[in-house]
Design brief:
The complex is a heterotrimer of chains A (about 550), B (about 230) and C (about 425).
Chain A: H1 3-7, E1 15-18, H2 20-23, H3 34-39, H4 41-47, E2 51-54, H5 82-94, E3 98-104, H6 113-120, E4 132-133, E5 154-157, E6 162-165, H7 180-196, E7 200-204, H8 221-237, E8 242-245, H9 251-255, E9 266-268, H10 272-282, H11 286-293, E10 303-307, E11 314-315, H12 321-331, E12 338-339, E13 342-343, H13 347-350, H14 355-367, E14 371-375, H15 433-437, H16 443-455, H17 459-462, E15 464-467, E16 475-482, E17 485-492, E18 498-502, E19 511-514, E20 519-520, E21 529-533, E22 538-544
Parallel strand pairs in A: 1-2, 1-14, 2-3, 3-7, 7-8, 8-9, 9-10, 10-14
Antiparallel strand pairs in A: 4-6, 5-6, 11-13, 12-13, 15-16, 16-17, 17-22, 18-21, 19-20, 19-22
Helix pairs in contact in A: 10-11, 10-12, 14-16
Chain B: H1 2-54, H2 57-64, H3 66-72, H4 78-100, H5 105-149, H6 154-177, H7 181-220
Chain C: H1 13-22, E1 27-33, H2 40-54, E2 60-67, H3 73-85, E3 95-101, H4 107-120, E4 125-129, H5 138-151, E5 155-163, H6 168-182, E6 193-197, H7 198-205, H8 213-217, H9 219-229, E7 234-241, H10 250-267, H11 269-272, E8 282-284, E9 289-291, H12 299-312, H13 314-320, H14 323-333, H15 344-360, H16 365-370, H17 372-386, H18 392-408, H19 410-418
Parallel strand pairs in C: 1-2, 1-4, 2-3, 5-7, 5-9, 7-8
Antiparallel strand pairs in C: 4-6, 5-6
Helix pairs in contact in C: 2-3, 2-5, 4-7, 6-18, 9-10, 12-14, 12-17, 15-18, 15-19
The chains are: A alpha/beta (about 550), B mainly alpha (about 230), C alpha/beta (about 425).
């Protein structure tokens, strides 16, 4: 392998997203911690994931699920100590697993010492670290993001008798990136973690770093300058580390954050996700093809990050009104399942616990272009609890076995940070790692095999994609190509068996070999290649010339 | 002398006896064959009648207009006609075969000729019959078409159609039997020529207006007022 | 006897391939065409707009079966489709199936293909819109599909705003006759636009009657009557103004429409022979609308055609009609044009006797129906004379009278029909 290939490890990665709190409790206090996480590394290694993305674990008043950080260079005491984290990091690296952490650049908690100092007096040296104003008339063109809770992006500070700027909650004041000291301080925070051995950052709320009057205060050129600056320093001092952008925008807008390959390494492809769910419900490939065709080319060293579910709601911001109504009606008829502009549910309940559909979606996740992210628990088909507030219903404890507290903690069940899923279908007695490990045919075992096949070739992680256009619109088919390697993926989006004729003239003479069973299929000839597919079935064929 | 006469009588008697002895079995055989033939033909007639009843031939012939034609000619029904025809054809066949057992040379030749002619006569009658049916059908079709298209003399048209078809059928039938071949050909040619001439004149005279109208419309682009048509549906 | 469609050669391999790739659908719109390049573009746009606007979530397919057009109709369909989909957001892939039959293949073969497609694709609701119909709007498609898709009807007959002197055969014969016999007041039985359910599609497809001349000449009528006589639910939907067709061949229309209708009577005999109480038909939208622009009609010629028809066809009419009826017709033919009236009672009696004669096959059935043409012309003459200055209400009242007359003579008809002649 050449050096750039190694530097671009994030392209070949399979990312596992988790919150330390939810995974495993080693000290019996009802909250998961780093020691617990370290003990479960063998499980993750066995699953085959190559990176872990940790949700915020910093000291925080936890008024926004840890995204309100009170100290950037420490660990929340519930999750352990910095030493625990270091030990976990080493153990992960020993197993060849990289670790990506959250970095909230845009704002801090109002409990952060920086803000406490800044508000303490108008002449404090840190006064200029935040965005203060005597009037709330500035930046009127910036939209309010949390329309349900906030009336203005300005909040009155009674202590220093001035307004401070916040794009999110009023307890999350925005840092002032026009101040070079702030940029320096944030780079020092990043440096701290990089020196500790962290492999990459997922940068939160990137578009909002800089404010300019008369603009929407989003995606400003100055913001890109800041990102470019961080990236330059990163490449100079820590080559091989990675920046991942969270920007819930249309692909063309997100593309700007790749720059000329000199800003982010990766960015989430938000619009693709709801369209995968939509395509399966509609039994029509149109939404997926449309959005991927509208996705511009990205620089060579960059990569999309794709996912099915995450710790947030299934966001429907990047769909049209018609599509959103359809998604609500089909996936969240019960209004309690909806939150903000999205659906707060996990993969398995969204798929009616239909194993075939869960497999199909995972199959597409692993074969469409981009680095896949698996949300913890989805590999065993965990359920959710829409009756606990906010998005906490998809953040319940990991279900390890069918015993006390699902094997998650020795604490009293009442002491757990969140109740376990306990219904007969998705409850931990029915759905847990232990029982699924014992079965060759469980979802967990299937996921292991799928990840293994995905990792057996770089064609999925780095290859180009070319969509085929078979007359049957229920079938989504594409050819991934990397070097001399070609893989044909065919997905039946329908609940019924389908026959499909693929025009494979370009690959005439090649022998399709089904990748999971290594089965040989008839050689491709001049005629359209006929495949019959069961409900929600998908095939990956390596096209070999022998 | 007397002896000679007696001898002659004797001989004659002998001959007669011999001839009778020879002829009688043949004759009996003939009677048996004819009798058997009658029984077979009768059975076949009953069977055919049954089959025709079952297959609803009556209705078909009714629709085709054949029954009406038969009624008008005071002939029995289609079923009857066909089954009777079968009876006679079969029995006649047996009779002819029976007669041939008599071993009379000249008679045999005559019968052979008759047998050879029989299918042709049959076919000729068939042609005639089908021709009559066709004449009836097409003349009616022509009549209806003429009336509904508002022709001034639809009967003339239908009558012509009828006569032409009957004539055609007749000539074919006669030719089938081999009679008056040349006469027929000449007569047919004359008739055909006459019809064609008639048609040519008719179209020439009738089409005069049409041609005038077409030319007029083409060169003068004169929009003539037209009656609106009412859509029946 | 049931027959599988797939065993037959009705559907070409290419058509099957297209069906396979479209798969199951909720809604189907069939557009038969034959040299309709002027009208078809509008229909395609209307159909697509209806589906994309009002049936956005449903799986839909549009089918164009072209009967050997030589004027670029199929090209017009393609072009209109591209324009049609612009400006409408759709969740799904809009599917088209296009096929071509030989020009010799009749309209029934085209309809049969559409029905087979509806059956094979399990379409819950389908609509057929003739490629020749002008002024089709998206609302038409909605009106044809909605009663089936949302209210579970099996057959939707159209209603149009029509010129008051259009559709006179429908008005004078088909509608009142079928209403008297089947008990359902379906005004437009033989329509170029209609909607139908999957149940009806599969029922019709699986019947072995397609090769029959009756079905071939009046497949739409046969479908409507199948729906009425098979205890399926029927309704009517008002579509809008129907443009007057530019050219009509009265004789052909009568031969097909009346011949087909008589044939259908025969094939559904077991249903109606014991009588059915009239039941109202659910109607979506206004019941009827008449328009009233001026038309020029040569009534004198019509009377002339009646008079010569009755005289020249005397033999034929004598074999079809009762001697009384025949005599009465002859008597009327001798009258002066101004005095001539073909009354409701006489008209109904003649029509019933024609149907009975058809049933008994007194002469060739094709000829028999053609012999009705002069009498129909006489009737039209009377109709135009009587309604020269009538308004819509008066005409409606008279139509009701005619329906009553058909009802009154119904038992006479059934009795004659049932006795072997």
């Amino acid at each position: 392998m050449t050096a750039p290939l190694q530097l671009e490890w994030y392209k070949d990665s399979v990312i596992y997203q988790l919150h330390v709190r939810t995974f495993f409790d080693s000290n019996g206090d009802g909250v998961g911690d780093f020691r617990g996480l370290q003990r479960k590394l063998d499980y993750l290694q066995e699953l085959g994931v190559t990176s872990i993305w940790l949700l915020p674990f910093y000291p925080s008043p936890l008024r926004d699920d840890g995204y309100d950080i009170a100290d950037y260079c420490a660990v929340h005491k519930s999750y352990g100590t910095l030493d625990d984290l270091k030990a976990f990091l080493d153990a992960a690296h020993q197993r060849g697993i990289r670790v990506i952490i959250e970095m909230v650049l845009n704002h801090t908690s109002d409990q952060h010492p920086w803000f406490q100092e800044s508000r303490s007096s108008r002449d404090n040296p840190r006064r200029n670290w935040y965005v203060w104003s005597d009037t709330d008339e500035l930046y009127r063109d910036a939209r309010i993001i949390f329309v349900d809770t906030e009336l203005s992006n300005w909040a009155w500070d009674p202590v220093s008798k001035a307004y401070y700027w916040h794009r999110f909650f009023s307890h999350q004041p925005d840092l002032n990136y026009d101040n070079p000291e702030v940029r320096e301080a944030m780079w020092n925070v990043m440096k701290f973690w990089l020196e500790l051995g962290i492999d990459g950052f997922r940068l939160d709320a990137v578009p909002y770093l800089v404010e300019r009057d008369g603009t929407s205060c989003e995606n400003l050129p100055e913001t890109h300058d800041i990102v470019r600056d961080f990236r330059r320093r990163l490449d100079e001092s820590f080559p091989g580390k990675m920046l991942l952008a969270e920007a819930n925008q249309w692909p063309a807008d997100v593309c700007a954050y790749f720059g000329q390959g000199d800003e982010f390494h990766m960015a989430f492809h938000f619009p693709l996700m709801p369209r995968m769910f939509m395509a399966v419900k509609l039994e029509d490939r149109k939404p997926i093809i449309e959005i991927l065709q509208r996705t511009p080319e990205i620089p060579k060293n960059c990569q999309w990050c794709i996912f099915l579910r995450n710790h947030d709601e299934l966001t429907l911001e990047m769909v049209t009104d018609i599509e959103r109504d359809y998604m609500y009606d089909e996936y969240a008829r019960d209004k309690t399942m909806r939150i903000n502009l999205g659906i707060r549910r996990r993969l398995a309940p969204l798929m009616d616990n239909d194993r075939r559909r869960i497999e199909l979606l995972n199959g597409m996740l692993m074969s469409l272009p981009g680095t896949p992210v698996i949300y913890y628990g989805d590999e065993i088909g965990m359920g959710d609890n829409v009756y606990i507030g906010d998005r906490n219903g998809v953040r319940t404890p990991m279900q390890w076995d069918g015993h006390w507290n699902a094997g998650f903690s020795d604490a009293d069940p009442e002491q757990l940070y969140a109740p376990l899923i306990s219904n007969p279908v998705y409850g931990y007695q029915a759905v847990n790692v232990d029982s699924q490990k014992r079965s060759e045919h469980s979802l967990l075992s299937w996921m292991k095999r799928l990840i293994q096949v995905r990792k057996s070739t770089q064609v999925f992680s780095r290859g180009s994609i070319e969509f085929l256009d078979p007359p049957n619109h229920r079938v989504l088919a594409y050819v991934r190509e990397f070097g001399s390697e070609r893989v044909l993926a065919v997905n039946n989006l329908s609940s019924t068996s389908q026959a499909v004729e693929l025009n494979l003239k370009r690959y005439r003479g090649a022998i399709p070999i089904e990748m999971s069973g290594k089965t040989i299929f008839p050689r491709i000839g001049d005629l359209p290649y006929l495949l019959t597919m069961g409900p929600y079935q998908f095939y990956w064929f390596r096209l070999r010339r022998i | 002398m007397k002896e000679m006469i007696i001898h002659a009588f004797q001989q004659a008697h002998d001959n007669l006896t011999r001839m009778l002895a020879e002829f009688l079995p043949h004759f009996l055989l003939m009677l048996v064959v004819i009798l058997v033939g009658w029984i077979v033909a009768y059975l076949l007639k009953i069977i055919l009648r049954g089959i025709l009843r079952v297959t609803n031939v009556e209705k078909m012939s009714e629709e085709a207009g054949a029954s009406r034609l038969l009624r008008r000619a005071e002939l029995p029904t289609m079923t009857d006609l066909l089954s009777r025809a079968l009876f006679w054809v079969v029995w006649l066949g047996f009779v002819i075969v029976g007669v041939s057992f008599l071993g009379i040379g000249s008679l045999q030749q005559q019968i052979a000729d008759l047998i050879a002619l029989l299918p042709q006569i049959f076919v000729a009658f068939l042609i005639l019959f089908v021709g009559l049916l066709a004449a009836n059908f097409f003349s009616r079709a022509a009549l209806l078409a003429g009336v509904n298209a508002g022709f001034s003399s639809p009967r003339l048209l239908s009558g012509t159609v009828r006569i032409v078809i009957i004539f055609l059928a007749l000539s074919m039938a006669l030719e089938q039997v081999g009679l008056g071949k040349e006469t027929m050909e000449i007569a047919f040619s004359i008739m055909f020529g006459a019809i064609m001439l008639g048609l040519a004149i008719a179209f020439g005279l009738g089409g005069r207006h049409l041609a005038a109208r077409l030319l007029e419309r083409h060169f003068l682009r004169e929009e003539r007022e037209r009656d609106d048509e009412l859509s029946p549906l | 006897m049931e027959r599988g469609v797939s065993d037959e050669t009705l559907l070409s391999d290419d058509f099957i391939r297209q069906l396979v790739s479209v798969g199951e659908v909720d809604l189907l719109v069939g557009i038969p065409s034959r040299n309709n390049c002027r009208t078809i573009g509008n229909i395609v746009r209307a159909a697509e707009e209806s589906l994309l606007r009002n049936f956005r979530r449903q799986r839909t397919v549009l089918i164009n079966i072209d009967a050997g057009s030589r004027d670029g109709t199929q090209e017009a369909v393609r072009q209109a489709s591209v324009v049609g989909t612009n400006g409408f957001e759709s969740l799904r892939t809009l599917r088209w199936i296009t096929a071509r039959t030989e020009s010799a293949a009749g309209d029934s073969a085209v309809l049969r293909t559409i029905l087979a497609a509806a059956d094979l694709l399990h379409a819950k609701a389908s609509a057929v819109v003739s490629g020749s119909t002008a002024a089709v709007s998206p609302g038409w498609i909605d009106s044809l599909l909605n009663p089936v898709f949302r209210e579970n009807y099996d057959f939707v007959a159209p209603l149009y705003a029509r010129h008051r002197f259009d559709g006179l055969l429908t008005r004078n014969l088909l509608y009142p006759f079928s209403r008297a016999i089947f008990g359902k007041s379906m005004r437009e039985m033989r329509a170029s636009e209609f909607g139908f359910s999957g149940r009806l599609a599969s029922e019709c497809t699986n019947r072995g009657e397609w090769e029959n001349e009756g079905v071939q000449s009046a497949a739409e009528t046969w479908m409507a009557i199948t729906a009425m006589s098979d205890s399926l639910t029927c309704c009517q939907a008002f579509l809008g103004p129907k443009a007057r067709s530019s050219s009509v061949a009265v004789v052909d229309v009568i031969r097909e429409a009346v011949g087909g209708f008589f044939w259908c009577l025969e094939s559904t005999e077991t249903y109606w022979i014991h009588g059915h109480d009239p039941e109202p038909l659910k109607t979506f939208g206004p019941d009827h609308q008449l328009t009233n622009e001026a038309v020029r009609v040569d009534r004198k010629k019509m009377f002339q055609l009646y008079r010569t028809g009755v005289a020249e066809l005397s033999d034929i009419l004598a074999s079809i009609l009762d001697s009384d009826t025949h005599a009465e017709l002859v008597r009327l033919a001798a009258l002066d044009e101004t005095a001539f009236r073909l009354s409701n009672a006489l008209w109904v009696r003649a029509v019933y006797e024609f149907a009975v004669a058809y049933h008994r096959s007194v002469i060739n059935r094709g000829h028999l129906v053609q012999a009705l043409v002069p009498i129909y012309r006489g009737r039209v003459h009377s109709f135009l004379t009587v309604h020269r200055s009538d308004d819509a209400d008066a005409m409606e009242a008279d139509l009701e009278d005619l329906c009553q007359e058909f009802g009154r003579q119904r038992s006479f008809f059934i009795e004659r029909w049932s006795t072997k002649g």
